Amino acid sequence: MRDRRAQSEKPERLSRFKYWLGKRAPYLANLWRFRKRITPGVEVRKREFPKVGTQTSPYAAYRNMIKKRFPEKMDESRLDAAIALYMRCAGYTVQEVVNEMYRHPPARSHGQNRDERIRL
């Protein structure tokens, strides 16, 4: 009788360690998460961004940097998004990034005229 009662009462299950640690200290949870990659003396690659305001056209500089870093073919919208992200990381304001993107519109296709209106 006593054995049956003991079997029916299940002890409360403890949560997993990583979730407990994440609630307690997010910084320590990230250390725990990357514990296999982090080793003493590991060198973290620093990214060099061209300095803000030193170039007349930062769009071209970031475009070349992204093309060198990601040699695989990338469509124009994705390339523009990457350029905008890199410019924001370098310290450009949202308005400066928008203005720079507006100054460098994508090339028109062969049959398209500048004054041509797109009809839906």
What would you say this structure looks like, in words?
Helices cover 50% and strands 0% of the residues. The protein has helices spanning 2-8, 17-24, 26-33, 58-69, 76-90, 94-103. By secondary structure, it is mainly α. Among the domains are: 12-44, no CATH class; 58-103. The N and C termini lie far apart (78 Å). Helix 2 (17-24) runs antiparallel to helix 3, helix 4 (58-69) packs across helix 5 (76-90) and helix 5 (76-90) packs antiparallel against helix 6 (94-103). The relative contact order is 0.08. The model has no long low-confidence stretch (mean pLDDT 77).
Radius of gyration: 27 Å
Order of helices and strands: HHHHHH
Could you tell me the number of beta strands? 0
Largest sheet: none
Q: Could you tell me the mean pLDDT?
A: 77
Instruction: Look at the helices and sheets and give the structural class.
Output: mainly alpha
Overall geometric form: elongated
Helix content: 40-55%
How far apart are the termini?
78 Å
Share of β-strand residues: under 5%
Low-confidence stretches: none
Number of helices: 6
Protein name: RepB/MobA-like C-terminal domain-containing protein
Domain RepB/MobA-like C-terminal: 74-112
Pfam family, one: RepB_primase_C
In terms of topology, how is this protein built?
Blueprint: H1 2-8, H2 17-24, H3 26-33, H4 58-69, H5 76-90, H6 94-103
